[in-house]
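We emphasize that the prediction below concerns an isolated chain of 247 residues; any contacts that depend on oligomerization or on bound cofactors are therefore not represented. The input was used exactly as deposited, without trimming of termini.
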Amino acid sequence: MSSPAVSRHRTPPRAAHPATGLRPPAPAPRNGAAAPSPAARLIGRFRYDRGSGAWWWSPEMFALYGLTPGGAEPSTDALLRHQHPDDREHILAALTGACTAGQPFTLRTRVTLPDGDLREFLLVGEPCLDGEGTVSGVEGICLDLTDCPPAGTGLDEVVALRTEVEQLRAAMASRAAIEQAKGILMLLTSCSDKVAFDLLTHISSHTHRKVRDVAQAITESTSGHARLPDDVRAILRDACPPDQSLR
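Result of the prediction step, given as a token string:
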């Protein structure tokens, strides 16, 4: 299956550690064992680059799907191939909506592993924006809900799952804001990715703001939605060429 917004291409280089900061734990226990806490769940990460059409899956994403990293090429078709036939259309529509309309999504899907085991997964996706606010791709996470539902009543399960999803979504949104701000600084100062992040942390340290808040202030200033705080502007004025300063 394919879509104008989502297609199959080669895998990009492996990215850095997940923005959620969660360490890869062991797979969820079976046979009635105690369910792990939300922070201990195996979480796979994926990224789709709209410009190049390239996909990236974390090792945990491969593990969730019962695949060996390097043995299968991540793609839209590879993602959909393992889904229940009734869920494929919804997933493709969600991915396309994220790419074309910037819509985030949260989906519960059924997945058939290579050994025939049927699992229930949760897919959470967030659109990624470039320095101009245009959707450049989709980044998300995948969790296996089959063996580790939150304990308690059905209502407790819904509330716990919603809380966990919102925490993960907030972490991804924070990372997306930082990546967007880095892109803006790279354009303004002609610096590298690392130098742009170092500049963000420098501003954060000297203005006593979180890196995420500094990034958000820069992106909102660039889009004209807010004026850049004076202390942030003063530091950027020294880093940016005179004709490239932010508002």
